[in-house]
């Protein structure tokens, strides 16, 4: 989980209707031990990452109380090695109750998109995630909470446009 845990968890727990996440990078956290292990033999050991199960339980809990959790990913094709990894682990997110869709970057050219990845909670509060050029989450200033209605509207509209055009996870095959 990239966002600072206390802020992210507080916003997610307070969420009543929807939590949407837009991801637009081709690599995240290359130092992630789970990604490094996957690079060796392309297998996934979900039990090896102590953060994995709590996240899945958390998503299941949120979805169980009626919150719709959606994640849209804009990816370059052919996809990066990290996106192949991300695709391989996404089945777990879907089983936990997340809806996930993928959009090839070439199909996003005419969409107005924000400059950063974000989580949007109930179309009221935006949590912006900041990463460095290598995809590592910035430990200082890595998240920014935004409540400006114009920014919220921009991000909600962008997410909706991506979601409508994107391919559901179960149908997406990384190029």
Helical content (DSSP H or I, runs of 4+): 25-40%
Number of alpha- plus pi-helical segments: 5
Low-pLDDT sequence parts: none
Largest sheet: 7 strands, mixed
Query: Which range does the strand content fall in?
Result: 15-25%
- Strand line-up of the largest beta sheet: 6-5-4-1-2-3-7
Radius of gyration: 15 Å
Outline, from the CA principal axes? globular
Distance between the termini: 26 Å
Question: Structural class from helices and strands?
Answer: alpha/beta
Topology:
Elements lengths: L4 H10 L3 E6 L9 H9 L10 H13 L3 E8 L5 H16 L2 E6 L13 E4 L3 E5 L13 E4 L2 H17 L1 E2 L7
Parallel strand pairs: 1-2, 2-3
Antiparallel strand pairs: 1-4, 3-7, 4-5, 5-6
């Amino acid at each position: 989980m990239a966002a600072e845990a206390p802020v992210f968890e507080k916003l997610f727990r307070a969420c009543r209707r929807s939590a949407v996440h837009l991801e637009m990078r081709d690599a995240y956290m290359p130092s992630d031990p789970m990604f490094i292990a996957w690079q060796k033999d392309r297998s996934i050991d979900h039990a090896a990452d102590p953060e994995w199960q709590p996240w899945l339980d958390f998503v299941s809990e949120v979805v169980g109380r009626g919150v719709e959790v959606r994640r849209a990913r804009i990816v370059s094709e052919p996809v990066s090695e990290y996106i192949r990894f991300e695709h391989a682990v996404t089945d777990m997110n879907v089983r936990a109750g997340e809806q996930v869709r993928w959009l090839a970057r070439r199909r996003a050219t005419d969409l107005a998109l924000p400059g950063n990845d974000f989580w949007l909670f109930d179309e009221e509060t935006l949590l912006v995630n900041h990463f460095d050029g290598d995809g590592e989450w910035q430990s200082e200033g890595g998240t920014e909470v935004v409540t400006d209605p114009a920014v919220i509207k921009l991000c909600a509209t962008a997410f909706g446009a991506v979601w409508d055009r994107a391919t559901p996870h179960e149908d997406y095959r990384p190029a």
